[in-house]
Amino acid sequence: MQRLFLLLFVMTITGLSAQVKNISITEVPEKLLERGVLVDVRTPVEFEEGHLPGALNIDVKSEEFINEVSGIRKNRNVLLYCRSGRRSARAAEILDSLGYKKVYNLEGGYLAWDAAKNEQ
Description:
By secondary structure, this protein is an alpha/beta fold. The chain has six helices and five strands.
């Protein structure tokens, strides 16, 4: 946990966030989803209650978050979402600071995706 806070502190001081793109979760191009890695950064309990098809679950609050995301190649499109967008924004900053080049924060999170799905 200390490692995560240190990383966030360094990232904040250096202002590294140029690689992160914010996209509404309801407007993600299909091509981007097909070529990327979709990551749900919520807890395992939240993930089990419902998630986007094909998503991996890597809890941003876990002490193992950095170790688990290191299995994703840094040149891949990484699409991150959570419940509403706050945790995925934090996860996107962490990945950016680790050198990931194509990081997407899916704004609105699972709540927005689920609401849009139910409207159809």
